[in-house]
């Protein structure tokens, strides 16, 4: 199996795609999304 092209196919969402998603679901940031969806007791307190 070739794996050298994996990164080229899986580079994550573009910034405008992220902003569109956030606007669609009604949050301002990824941090807000995490805060509103993950229970406090399982959230990482520090990076």
List keywords for this structure.
47 residues, 3 helices, mainly alpha
Instruction: Please report the number of helical segments.
Output: 3
Strand content: under 5%
| Shape call | flat
Q: Please state the structural category.
A: mainly alpha
Can you summarize the main beta sheet? none
C-alpha Rg, in Å?
15 Å
**Mean pLDDT rating:** 86
* DSSP strand tally: 0
Low-confidence stretches: none
Intertermini distance: 35 Å
Please bin the fraction of helical residues: 40-55%
Order of helices and strands: HHH
Question: What does this protein look like?
Answer:
- The protein is mainly α and 47 residues long.
- The chain has a domain at 13-42.
- It has helices spanning 6-9, 15-25, 30-37.
In short:
The protein is mainly alpha-helical. It has three helices and no strands.
Task: Please specify the SSE layout and strand pairing.
Layout: H1 6-9, H2 15-25, H3 30-37
